[in-house]
Recover the amino acids of this structure.
DNA sequence: CACTTTCATCCAAAAACATTCAAAATCAAT
DNA sequence: ATTGATTTTGAATGTTTTTGGATGAAAGTG
């Protein structure tokens, strides 16, 4: 096989997979490690790829690289505080549920390199989790256009066969009288099920959610622990019926 | 055999394959190495090809040669042609399966505003489909970091309860002898299942996939219709055992 | 820290190369 | 058709490039 052909093959592999190992190439091409290493060295000097220990990765334009990183930044300060605290509750080898939504999304960067399995119904959540090399199971079902949340009967069905050590949920309305509420019927059903399947369900909510009541009830307040940046005076009564954690700003 | 004929033959080979080895030519033309080398030297001086150690490669316009950029664009052009044709096969009210992978991803823009339901195991696919307001079901399961494909037993389980009018699959290797193959075991299982659940399974593959053999077999070639930009001479035998559609470039 | 994997470097064997030369084929004139 | 000149061919030669294994150093893993 021609050097040229090997080079082409390696670059094509990279085009598909972003990274290749020396081992993989030696097996597929049936050439020695020495040869493959030489190939990689040459291709690197041509700026066609970047060598890494054990193989090579695709060369990215700086712009691309930046946008990858950028994904993990910027949330409102209160959301981020809540998320960071929630993530600190996660223990090694937990199997946790992370609900779709922006507050729970903010937790994900704080889970980096933790030995946990995450089940989620948030498509962007799953994507970021995978990027951070966290074992991730995405629930199946209908995808909701606006929020990229997975919902529907299929979702509930799969959920009903899972069990979580902890669940971290977003919620639109939290009220003493009407409990935990959300605007979408199908999403409510999924949330309800996830809370039921978790040993310790937590609700992540900034202060604006308290006193709000939405269309569908998901669960009673006393079923969950609430995590917030600040509990408004008007909702102080909640502390009588369930545990509320106020994260220091 | 005339010198002129040999030259023609060599250039034709290059047109097909981009690179040829001296050895290959000597075997096929049944002439000595000396002769073939002379041919190559002459053709190079006529700027019809570029010599490399062990053989020769196709001459490219300088612009092409220089930028990796163009190569990527060009590659995705054939993918795009294949994808566009595949999308044209979709009929109203179909329930189709769209496999994870870049070729099938290219189909999605062509499905915009079509009254179809799409089931997929590609996370980016589902995301784009939702953005284009197409009814989308994402399969559940483990998410694969590199490709963002959903795989694993959970995935197969849900798949087994679905039925599709058509399935559009990507594939890494297509060979007369070894059938349809792919490098990842779990992904292979999902693909196999999806093909089984579809009334009309299609394989989308550019010409580079033919003759390739990967680690795991997914299905036999005759189970599917192949859609490609160009079927290489060496794989013509495929037309005897299944339907192959070559999309005009 | 021990242990494994991957790495760069060196070297000898193998493959591919340019060059030379005599035989074979082609041509051009008789 | 035969001869001699010319071109093309394939084998032989020695040189250069490429290859794959061996080695110990470096990096990654637990």
């Amino acid at each position: 096989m021609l050097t040229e052909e090997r080079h082409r093959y390696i670059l094509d592999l990279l085009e598909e997979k972003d990274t290749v190992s020396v081992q993989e190439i030696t097996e597929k091409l049936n050439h020695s490690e020495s040869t493959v290493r030489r190939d990689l060295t040459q291709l690197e000097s041509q700026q066609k790829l970047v060598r890494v220990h054990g193989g090579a990765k695709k060369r990215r334009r700086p712009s691309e690289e930046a946008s990858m990183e950028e994904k993990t930044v910027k949330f409102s300060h209160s959301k981020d505080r809540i998320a960071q605290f929630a993530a600190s509750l996660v223990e090694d080898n937990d199997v946790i549920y992370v609900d779709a939504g922006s507050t729970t999304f903010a937790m994900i960067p704080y889970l980096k390199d933790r030995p946990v399995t995450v089940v989620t119904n948030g498509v962007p959540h799953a994507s970021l989790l995978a990027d951070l090399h966290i074992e991730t199971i995405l629930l199946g079902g209908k995808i909701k256009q606006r929020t990229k949340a997975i919902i529907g009967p299929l979702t509930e069905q799969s959920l009903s066969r899972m069990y979580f050590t902890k669940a971290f949920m977003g919620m639109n309305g939290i009220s003493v009288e009407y409990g935990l509420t959300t605007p979408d019927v199908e999403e409510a059903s999924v949330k309800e099920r996830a809370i039921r399947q978790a040993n310790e369900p937590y609700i992540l909510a900034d202060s604006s959610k308290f006193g709000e009541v939405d269309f569908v009830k998901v669960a009673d307040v006393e079923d969950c622990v609430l995590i917030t940046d600040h509990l408004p005076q008007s909702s102080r009564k909640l502390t009588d019926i369930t545990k509320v954690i106020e994260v220091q700003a």
Observations:
- Residues 22-23, 33, 37, 41, 53-54 of chain B lie near DNA strand C (CB under 10 Å from a C1').
- The interface with chain A takes residues 18-19, 21, 52-55, 57, 68, 72, 75, 102, 123-124, 126-127, 129-131, 133, 135-148, 150, 152, 154-155, 158, 172, 208 of chain B (CB under 8 Å).
- The domain at 3-59 of chain B is CATH 1.10.10.10 (Arc Repressor Mutant, subunit A).
